[in-house]
Design brief:
Chains A, B: This is LysR family transcriptional regulator. Chains A, B: Pfam families: HTH_1, LysR_substrate. The structure is a homodimer. The first copy, chain A, has helices at residues 6-18, 21-28, 32-46, 64-92, 109-120, 197-206, 220-228, 238-243, 278-296; strands spanning 51-52, 61-62, 96-101, 125-129, 143-146, 154-162, 164-169, 178-179, 187-190, 212-216, 233-237, 252-255, 257-258, 264-271. By secondary structure, chain A is of the alpha/beta class. Chain A is rod-shaped and about 105 Å long. Chain A has three domains: 6-92, Winged helix-like DNA-binding domain superfamily/Winged helix DNA-binding domain (Arc Repressor Mutant, subunit A), CATH 1.10.10; 96-160 and 265-297, 3-Layer(aba) Sandwich (D-Maltodextrin-Binding Protein, domain 2); 164-262, Periplasmic binding protein-like II (D-Maltodextrin-Binding Protein, domain 2). In chain A, a hairpin with an 8-residue loop joins strand 1 (51-52) and strand 2. Chain A is built from nine helices and 14 strands. At the A-B interface, helix 1 and helix 4 of A face helix 1 and helix 4 of B. Chain A binds a DNA duplex through residues 7, 20-22, 30-41, 53-58, 60.
DNA sequence: CGGAAATCATCGCTTTTCACGATGTCGGTC
DNA sequence: GACCGACATCGTGAAAAGCGATGATTTCCG
């Protein structure tokens, strides 16, 4: 008896609107006797009558106490309905999703994923963050694009292998593959030493290439401009080149490396052992799809 | 399964706050298995898991769906508690009351009633109205002071008999009772012809007094000023004289009438067959008490 | 004035649900 | 690997929901 029941309030409100227990029962799909008992239960919980029953064909009327219950009860029922709608919206895929992306890793994949997600779920609230802590971690994010290992208890899926290619000024190297050894002591511009970059430079070294890094920036356009200006060459993943539309640039030339470096692997991570929102699940599916399309178009 | 149950939401919120089914159960006074089943029922109604159960000593965590339910569920529970509080306040006597009063009928009784009611129930919302339709009716009022018959289905209690007295300029009549016959053709000021006034004038006529009414107004001060100015005398109920403090006025004299007129009867009315609010019930009690005190002090 | 109609309350009755205690299962810990 | 701690599940008795039938009132109408 400590608390009201929504069912009883629904019956009460229906009676107040219909003016009759029987009609309210019909509206709610109950019998008259059930509604009568529901009101009796409600009156027991609130500790007083909520209706005056004049008898005969005259309509039931709410008492002053009933008016108090009616006002608040309607609010309560409205909130209950709102909860149901919110759940339905959520299950339909609306809602909020926090996605983390680091550096330029996903300048090609992510926009497409976002657009398709928004097209499917116009009401959804997509939030992106590009924070880059020293140790990449998933934190409060729902999804995290990253090209390396992520701390914490995460699951992940590999989106694609992103091979490293050499970018140089047009004519700096003859067309076709370039041997790693030719990059030894060569001036080079490069990304800062996070993400997969240290691994890549170690792989260069293992191949006998110890380039002179003369400039580091995370901004791809700046790197490529430096290459065009003749400051040095660059070893960048294919995705970054595609994002900057390097293939169409006559002032630059792209070369495979021999032997090739181990490709950067781009993963999509999410917290392990936790239920994903429908939005997040769908985003993973879309990301895998988009990544497949991009790999296939190489 | 069409609707959530507040009980389930309470269990859900408690678990979310405690991080454990067992602790939540202890807090709510249930067993662990009961809250487990309550959550299961909730998950059935919303159609998905609301908790991730990592197993072992790690706390239960709400899923994205659970976050939606948690946010709305807290609102719902808050409204439910608000309903309970509103009911308690109502039963304690707070709330709203609409009181109707007509003309100067209650310029003596009503202020005292209001003050005592407000003292007892500081939170209450007392509304007075002095509308005067052609046919007095209770309408949406909770209480109605009136000195005559009221249309509609009402109950009433007589507050007091209010005898009519003659008011004249000091010295116009010798001290003591005045015979009705002496008022025949006398110039007189009087109230408009509503409330008990027509009955009173008929009673005058039956007693042989056919005064010349030279001025009518509902404003008592105006009437008494006219009496002082010598325009005529007035026959007014005792309450009105008391309200205007006529006894202490040396320029006026008050006389009983012989034979006396039937006293005006002042009633307090309320809608019949309807449950009264605690506030209204108490107001009736107070009004009867106050009227008794005033009659006794005559 | 008496019967018909409408309305809500009440009484058994069946089905469902609630809450409990005991037991099972799973993951982490020593 | 045995032992916790924590949640799920199962079986049981009590409580409640809901239904249909019946009863008590009141109004309406002849």
């Amino acid at each position: 008896m400590r608390d009201v029941e929504l069912r009883h309030l629904a019956a009460f409100v229906a009676i107040a609107e219909e003016g009759s227990f029987g009609r309210a029962a019909a509206r709610l799909g109950y019998t008259q006797s059930t509604v009568s008992q529901q009101v009796a239960a409600l009156e027991k919980t609130v500790g007083g009558s909520v209706f005056d029953r004049p008898g005969g064909p005259r309509p039931a009327r709410v008492t002053p106490l009933g008016a108090v219950v009616l006002e608040r009860g309607r609010e309560l029922l409205a909130r209950s309905a709102a909860l149901g709608e919110a759940v339905e919206r959520f299950k339909a895929g609306d809602g909020r999703i926090d996605i983390g992306t680091f550096q330029s890793v996903s300048s090609v994949i992510l926009p497409t994923v976002i657009r398709r997600l928004r097209d499917e779920h116009p009401g959804c609230d997509i939030r992106l963050s590009e924070e880059e802590p020293d140790t990449p971690q998933i934190g409060q994010l729902d999804l995290l694009f990253y090209d390396g290992q992520v701390d914490g208890d995460v699951e992940r899926v590999k989106l694609l292998d992103d091979p490293y290619l050499l970018v140089a000024g047009a004519g700096d190297f003859p067309d076709g593959p370039v041997r790693l050894a030719r990059l030894d002591h060569a001036p080079m511009v490069a990304w800062p030493l996070d993400c997969d970059q240290p691994e890549m430079e170690e792989a260069l070294a293992r191949g006998g290439a110890h380039p002179r890094i003369v400039f580091r920036t995370a901004v791809n356009d700046a790197l490529l401009s430096m290459v065009r200006a003749g400051l040095g060459c660059a070893v960048l993943p294919w995705l970054a080149l595609r994002g900057a539309n390097v293939e169409a640039d006559p002032t630059l030339s792209v070369h495979e490396l021999r032997p090739s470096l181990p490709a950067r692997e781009i993963y999509l991570h999410w917290p392990a052992g936790r239920t994903l929102s429908p939005l997040a699940s769908r985003a993973i599916e879309i990301a895998v799809e988009v990544a497949g399309d991009i790999s296939g178009s190489a």
